[in-house]
Amino acid sequence: MTSYVEDFDDGPGGWMRVVDNFAPPAALPIHNGVVRCQGPWWVDYNHAPPGGGYLQLLMCLVTHGPSGESVREVAGPNRFTGGRFPTDFTNAKITMRTRGELEAAGTKLSLLIQGSKDGIISGWVLTGETFAVNPEWTETTVTAVPDPSQWTSIGSRHDRTDTYGEKPLLDILAHVNVNIHLIMFPVKPRPMGEIGGDPHRLRAGRDYPIWPSSIAQGYVEVDRVQIDFAS
């Protein structure tokens, strides 16, 4: 069995923070080998209905190919791609050691996988199993089962279909060749006041303000990530 392990004792190892659609990626604060994902987190509207919904992105790892200079600057050497770990996540077991405090607003700490097929990036959130966030350190293992009933496809909002869409889960699981994310999901941003349009065609948090109580708030710390590949 092949296993990828990142304990952040020697930097981020390729992990980074996606700020929003406009800003470059940012470094994750790391202290004594612990990553701190500190809210407030951007509400990612790229997959608003008719897509699978809104996300809040905590941390991300590119899984295939070389990284550009801006990514290397904030994420350091990518020990996943550098170690030539598999992109076949079918039945992989992902273990996270986490702690934190959340006002979760109905969300769960979840795994998002993304792969590219036929020029379209397809993302799936493992909603059947999620990671624990408790004040004390807790280790949780989830399994990337090839069962669509355990996943939610995030698809695309109305105007991003040239980039995002839905491809079969089994195809994406077998070749997660874009990235993996740790996210809060499902996020249900609530408009603050009159917005003068369809909230899903407008951009939540950019074209109109949202109530902070309607999205996840708090922090999550990650001490260790382990991926045990089935093949």
Descriptive report:
- It is a single chain.
- The chain has 231 residues and is mainly β.
- Helices cover 7% and strands 39% of the residues.
- A hairpin with a 2-residue loop joins strand 8 and strand 9.
- 37% of the residues are buried.
- The model has no long low-confidence stretch (mean pLDDT 97).
- The termini are close together.
- Strands 2, 5, 6, 8, 9, 11, 12 and 13 form an eight-stranded mixed sheet that branches.
DSSP helix count? 3
Quick one: how many beta strands? 14
Q: Main beta sheet: strand number and arrangement?
A: 8 strands, mixed
Shape: globular
List segments where confidence is low: pLDDT < 50 over at least 5 consecutive residues. none
Our estimate of the beta-strand percent is 35-45%
Q: Helical residue percent?
A: under 10%
Alpha-beta content class: mainly beta
Order of helices and strands: EEEEEEHHEEEEEEHEE
- Average of the residue pLDDT scores: 97
Q: Taking Cα atoms only, what radius of gyration do you get, to the nearest Å?
A: 17 Å
- Span of the ends, CA to CA: 7 Å
Q: Summarize this, please?
A:
This protein is mostly beta strands. The protein has helices at residues 69-75, 79-82, 169-174; strands spanning 2-6, 15-16, 30-31, 34-38, 43-44, 54-62, 93-103, 108-117, 120-131, 138-143, 151-153, 164-165, 179-187, 217-229. Strands 2, 5, 6, 8, 9, 11, 12 and 13 form an 8-stranded mixed β-sheet that branches. Strands 1, 3, 4, 7, 10 and 14 form a 6-stranded antiparallel β-sheet that branches.
